[in-house]
């Protein structure tokens, strides 16, 4: 079974409904998820990655349940967190990169060799022993993406991959992502960065608001965001 | 330990970590067998010469790492000046200085990952109780998150200073503890995303 299937998917935390009634079949190569802050975009990504269990319905990734079958999920899905600081677990670059490979069953020796080869291929052989705390924001992002890519998942989930990056770094990351053969599902609140997606999914208050090609969904989204921005203050409290 | 390893490559960097640690243990035990003050002073000179031979940058780094000893040296010196047992005082100060300087030298010339593999090997007899990979993971997480938490503390202190003329002091304890719990949650999720702790 190809692609990612969401069946009547819902998620609630502490009695508050964050996502509800999502039915989607995701099989395009470039998918963008757009929506305002608090619309449930990140929660949807975590459900697809199997980091949290759905409160309702089901997620299937290439035929498996990513929450229950963690081994299967590791081969199929990688996720890049919004803040690389939350993703990095190890003090040095090579340990961070080797970790995922070991989790996939490689020995430490092979994992380190693969890691060093990959660093050398990217012209960063001298990074191997570097301490992660000395890296800049863009370099940390690069490290997190590289750690995911080394695990060679079929789908990569990206949560606002450009937040916190300067313009040259955004250009570099964009180029790198465009060249990837994997399926990418990217969260964004910026319509410009979703323009090249084959399919755009617009979430609003935890529900599907629109779903279609970029040239149909994005103009509606931009107009609606401008309209909301014109209106008075953002005074509603969540919950 | 992250910034303690010297970036200046020395011949000592190439020795195996286990040998260096064993040598350090023997050296420190030996210090307490020496009863001649001149021998101790000679050792101190030899150690200083060795560190100088690795270059001025290395030697000044080594000297900076001895800084935390000064209060102890001061207390010992004052005490022995007062009791008049100057030779005893010199013994204590030299022994302490030599033991710490030698330990620093091992730290400065050993990569963290090599140090950890020695600990993993030493902990192998405990493996039924404490799986070595889990122990290594715990080491790594501690080393990763100490600078991270220090940074969060500094940010909290700055946030406090930005809006208060008073020193933050104990007021940061609760937010810092919450930040640590937050970091733990995030690390747990990051672990899950790439295969958990086993």
Automatic annotation (TrEMBL), chain A:
Alphabetical list of InterPro entries matching this protein: AAA+_ATPase, ABC_transporter-like_ATP-bd, ABC_transpr_CbiO/EcfA_su, ECF_ABC_transporter_ATP-bd, P-loop_NTPase
Alphabetical list of CDD domains matching this protein: ABC_cobalt_CbiO_domain1
Pfam families: ABC_tran
PROSITE patterns reported in the protein's UniProt record: ABC_TRANSPORTER_2
Entry's transmembrane regions: none
Keyword ATP-binding attached: yes
Residue ranges constituting the ABC transporter domain according to the UniProt record: 4-230
GO molecular function: ATP binding
Keywords from the named record: ATP-binding, Nucleotide-binding, Transport
Keyword Nucleotide-binding: yes
Family per record: Belongs to the ABC transporter superfamily.
Record's protein name: ABC transporter ATP-binding protein
UniProtKB/TrEMBL annotation, chain B:
Record InterPro entries: ABC/ECF_trnsptr_transmembrane (IPR003339)
Subcellular location: Membrane
rRNA-binding recorded as keyword: no
Keywords carried by this UniProt record: Membrane, Transmembrane, Transmembrane helix
Bilayer-spanning residue ranges: 21-49, 69-94
Predominant localisation class: membrane
Domain of life: Bacteria
Lipid bilayer topology: Multi-pass membrane protein
One Pfam family of this chain: CbiQ
Keyword Transmembrane: yes
Similarity remark: Belongs to the CbiQ family.
Protein name (database record): Energy-coupling factor transporter transmembrane protein EcfT
Species for this entry: Pseudogemmobacter lacusdianii
